[in-house]
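Case study 2.
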Amino acid sequence: DEWNARRAAQAQRYHEALGSLDLRLPVVTPGVESAWHLYVVRHAERDRLQAELADHGIATLIHYPIPAHHQQAYADHSFGSLPVAEQMAREVLSLPLGPHLRPVQQERVIDVLGELLAART
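Prediction:
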C-alpha cells in the first residue's frame, strides 16, 4: 500500500507539472484507482524525445512497442489495420516512476522535459 501511495503521488506530480507540455498524459477513468505501475506519456516524436532524455541521463522505457494485433500470438488472425493502436505503439514512452524514485530525481525529469519540449515551440 505504501509503494502504491508513493507511485500515485508521483503520477499526480507528473500530471500537475507536465499538463501544459506537448505530451499526451495518461487518463484514469473516474471511479477507478490506478496502481500506477507505469506512467506512460505519448509524443509524436517519441524516439527523438527518448534519445534527448537519455542524453541528459534520464532513462525511459518503451513498453508494448508492438501493437497487440501484430504480436506473434495473433499471427493466424486477420485484423487488418488498427491505426490508433499502431500510432500509440509509435508514441508511448514510460517515464521513471516507482517507490525508488526520489523527489529530486522526478523534478529533474520534469525540468528536462520542460526544457526539451519548450525548445521545440
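The longest helix spans residues 2-18.
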